[in-house]
């Protein structure tokens, strides 16, 4: 069976990415390992007293993201594709590569909005970073409006 790691960010194009990964997994008799990497600074805010940490904000956000991951996992399972999920906090590129290695992934499936140039300078591109750093093939699905 082919192992596919599918990172999701819950953005407005996540549904398109998941549909593409489902199609790919069906063609290859694949299993999907769904992952969401939350930033480490979820519970931090800058206020009158400088940086403050609010653990309840972080806990609520993580809980909501787990609900979203569960929904996506159920959607994948409904297509008779094996699936499991993981939510971790940290640096997305490193965590995704580490997870893909741990799951003996054959592919990492990512989406690309097709932006480039100045957008990448200011925002960066996780997909671009993974294609440069990963020894595991990265399948990039075009996700356009």
Automatic annotation (TrEMBL):
| Source organism superkingdom | Bacteria
| UspA domain sequence ranges | 3-142
Which Pfam families does the UniProt entry name for this protein? Usp
InterPro entries reported in the protein's UniProt record: Rossmann-like_a/b/a_fold, Universal_stress_UspA, UspA
Family recorded in the similarity comment: Belongs to the universal stress protein A family.
Q: Which PANTHER family match?
A: STRESS RESPONSE PROTEIN NHAX, UNIVERSAL STRESS PROTEIN UP12
Q: What is this protein called?
A: Universal stress protein
Organism lineage reads as: Bacteria, Pseudomonadati, Bacteroidota, Flavobacteriia, Flavobacteriales
């Amino acid at each position: 069976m082919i192992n596919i790691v599918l990172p999701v960010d819950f953005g407005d194009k996540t549904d398109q990415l998941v549909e593409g990964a489902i199609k790919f997994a069906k063609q290859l008799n694949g299993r999907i390992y769904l992952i969401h990497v939350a930033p480490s600074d979820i519970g931090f805010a800058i206020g009158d007293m400088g940086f403050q940490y609010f653990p309840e904000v972080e806990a609520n956000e993580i809980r909501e993201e787990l609900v979203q991951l569960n929904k996506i996992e159920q959607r994948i399972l409904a297509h008779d594709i094996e699936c499991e999920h993981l939510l971790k906090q940290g640096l997305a590129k490193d965590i995704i590569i580490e997870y893909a290695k741990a799951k003996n992934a054959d592919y990492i499936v990512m989406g690309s909005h097709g932006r480039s140039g100045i957008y990448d300078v200011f925002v960066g591109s996780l997909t671009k970073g993974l294609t440069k750093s990963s020894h595991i093939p990265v399948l990039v699905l075009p996700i356009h409006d």
